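quick one: zinc ion bound model?
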Amino acid sequence: MQLVHDDLVQSRFSNTFARTVEMICPHCLKEAVFEARSWQEHGQQLAASELTCARCEDAVLFVQLLQADGTRKEAGLFCYPRPAGREPMAGVEHLQALSAPLARSYESALKLYNRAEWGATALTVRHLLGGLATRMLAEDKRDLPLTRALESLPQEVDLSRPLQDIAQLLAPSGTFGRQFDDEAQIDKVTAELLLELVEQLLTYLVVLPGTMADLKSRIATAPVPLRRGSGAA
Ligand SMILES: [Zn+2]
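yep, here:
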C-alpha cells in the first residue's frame, strides 16, 4: 500500500472521499485519471474502492482510513498497486542543504521521469551528475569534462570523514563508551542513537557498495540500446 498525496486527488464526492485521482498508472505506466464509482465501508476504520484508469481501464484498489465519526482521515488515502512514479530519495533534504540548484535538478529529473519523459529525464540526470561533480571538486578542476570530473571525485572528496570520531564516541571515555559500564542505566534515546549510528555505518560500509555492485551488474545486462550507447560515452 502506498500513501496517495492529497494533491493527486482532483475531485471528491460530497462526503469528501476521492472521486478522481490523477497519477501514473501502475498498469499502463502513463499519467492518467482514475475514477471511483462508489466507496464501501469495511468495519469502523476503513473504506475501499476500486478506481479505474481512464487510459487502460485496469483497476487500482484504494483504501481510505476513517476517523471515529466515519469521516475520512487526513493523509489516510492509500492505493495498491503503487503508482508507477518514483518518490524522492530518503535524505533529500541534505542535497537541498548542499545546493538548492542541485536539489532542483533532482526534483526536475523525478518530475520528468514521473511524466514518462525518458530522454529528458536522462539528460537532466547527466546535468545533475555534472553539477554534483563540480560542486564537490576543487576550483581548479571544475572545468573538467564529466568523465574526468567523476574520475577525480575519489581523490578530491574526503570519503573517510563520515567515519571520523566514531572510535572516540565508543571509547571507554567517550559519550557512548561511558554508558556501557552500567547497562541498566541506558535509556531509549541512547539505544536509538546507537542503533542509528550502526545503521549509518552499515549503509556506508556495506549497503552502498552492495547496491552499487548490483546496479552495475544490472547496467551490464540492460537491454541493448543502453549497452550500445555506453561505448560512446
Ligand atoms: Zn492505465
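Strands lie at 2-3, 9-12, 18-24, 31-35, 40-42, 46-53, 59-66, 72-80.
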